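#structure-requests
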Amino acid sequence: MRKSFTLSEILIAIIVIGIIAALTILNFIVSYKRQKYTARLKKFYSVMNNAIRESSVNNGISSTEWDHLSLTGKEFFLKYLSAYIKYDYYIIEAGDQCKVYLLDGTSIIILPKGLYRYNTGSACYKECIKTKAAAECQSECAEAACTAVYYDINGNKKPNKTEYDIFRFGICGGTFFNELHVNYFDALPDLDSETNDFVEDRAEIRKMCADEDNRGFMACTKLLRIDGWEFKEDYPWKI
């Protein structure tokens, strides 16, 4: 009867145990990071929506009363957000962007001079484009205006890449989004290039998120929004 293991058998067993332990630790780290990111995204989404509602009391509930199009990032932050969120400090970055460091170690980047949202299929645009340039019609027939806000989930820590630890949102309002022109904060749905309707199908949004060369502007954030801010196994980018 065999009573002992050979040295090679013991070494193989140690290697196998080490591999299993390493994989277990790696899975735990990934799971922990995803849970932390989910918790921070949920908190941020709630904090920003509350800030928009509170700011609307003093600055007007309608998107037409907010200046989305001419302010720098700093000006927009100081006018509409600074009194309603808790932050440590802010800095001005290239291109008049404003980076705001929050108390929990995360940060937001507010882009200057927001974007129009317009519908090329609207009666206004169709009539306008007959006699004016597209840029003029985009402004004249705008159904909404938006200010882009990037959320960096771990501040200055790497990788500092969109869809990995930086997620894109927008502060928008107008009939393009709701009949009351009310400002709101969300991951904006992208538009179907053929129908000009919002893309709401999860499979299509995930496809847009996964396309590195032609990614929807906020498709990955929208995907997370649909999934309750959880990073599902099919989320296209490894966290």
